[in-house]
Amino acid sequence: MRARRPHAKVGTTLLAALAGVLAAATTLAVAQLVAVVVAPQAAPLIAVGGVFIDATPPALKDFAIATFGTNDKLALLVSMAVVIALVAAVAGVLARRRWALGAGVVVVLAAVGAAAAVTRPSASAVAVVPSLVGGAVGLVALRVLVSRLPGARRAAEGDRDVPDRTAPDRDVPDRAAPGADRGLGRRSFIAAALVTSAVAALAGVGGQVLGQATRTVEAARRALRLPTASRRAAALPAGVESGVVGAAPFVTPNGDFYRIDTALAVPQVDVDSWRLRVHGLVEEEIEISFQDLLDADLIESWVTLTCVSNVVGGDLAGNAKWLGLPVRELLARARPTADADMVLSTSIDGFSASTPLAALTDDRDAMLAIGMNDEPLPADHGFPVRMVVPGLYGYVSATKWVVDLEVTRFADARAYWTDRGWSEKGPIKTASRIEVPRSLDRVPAGQVAIGGTAWAQQRGVTAVEVQVDDGDWAAATLATEASIDTWRQWSFVWDATPGSHQLTVRATDATGEVQTADRVDTVPDGATGQHSIVVTVE
Ligand SMILES: Nc1nc2c(c(=O)[nH]1)N[C@H]1C(S)=C(S)[C@@H](COP(=O)(O)O)O[C@H]1N2
Ligand SMILES: [Mo]
Which residues form the signal peptide (predicted)? Predict the structure, then answer.
């Protein structure tokens, strides 16, 4: 009989797979909704994704950034959804034949979610709740759907996990009486599938709506009035912009500022309970509140942040006006002992960075920042407090959502990325890039405006040169320097002749060192090499 109905059988298997996928969607949506109430970071996708990110080898992380750029997190979430859907489809097919097997897959998935959630930094025991509640609801959904698959036995006929061994065929659905399809056929399954989808959709939308409504942290951020700095940033000198149309603006608007971090869901930090602890190799342990920061003498300065994962010509750099407390004032109160040489700053989400103590105590104005371009820090950029240290790549200095400063020694402690193959120290390397025109652009022959940005934080850029094809290096015009800690724009008027041409740029820093042409990869301490583009002149 089975052999004569291959299509029906395939169809039922597909429906079983669909049952599994719907049950998984219900599990995730319900878990997400519960997580909004219990702990947002405890949502299973977020927690499992977080574990995955922390376990990702540096090469894969670099590949993800290179391939997906700042969409690497979206790529991860989509991949996880695909994998879960596949596993869930298998669970549905299994559950049709042996309920215990299918149910087992759901239980294991929920357990993985719960385990991931409870082991995330700063998680409490309640972090298991979203996955467990979601898993329970998912099990019910799977049970209901599988029991309504065409050919499934009526509930009255028994709910056994193991089919009757005396029967010649152990396959429960196909063994069902010919009349079984009448009561529990496709229509009944479709009805149950619609109800399940509705439950999943309601939970999903409910989670979103509730999430928005309870975003008290964003409300607190909006309500915050930043104090005026005791030492204001110098007004930007006229002429910091090169004037080349299409070049990156000198000040990066907060909304356009590159974002790099390991947080799948942005940490929601409550300002009233935020504390920063300064401890370790210090004469005196210190703890400050956010109010302490608001009441302190704050400074403002322009600093260009750069990511160590930025490739030659890349855009993982941004320039902003930061408002904050000099870290050296806090350290002066704590009094580091003579053997200390590093400060390990740690975020509420477990990320950490190792910064040389000297970089936090010298006159470069490393700060605990609370303001970015005259606004409270955006949540993505570390609200309420982050570190900003001129001259060092972000991974060794710019801890967002910072809650802890441990004064220690490089010999005794390692930071998040140092543990994953990156260098323990990360001074920013001199870089320059061409922003206008774009590579592979077509431009008209004659005078063409070339423009871009160069940076060498803590040293300053003193020259930029452009090379056309294999010609001599020619000096570009430098825009005014705002400070040695900010990037510097440049422009160059090129007398373009028809044909295909390569343009290359290099910068020289204030120590006289010319940016090297040697290409090295971003791992372990930042890329080098010169940026080239190819354009067609018509
Ligand atoms: N908590 C936390 N802070 C972090 C990171 C992180 O993953 N988590 N990444 C660092 C890195 S690698 C960089 S380049 C900067 C980027 O800061 P931005 O996202 O504000 O541009 O943040 C740093 N601070
Ligand atoms: Mo970075």
Answer: 1-31
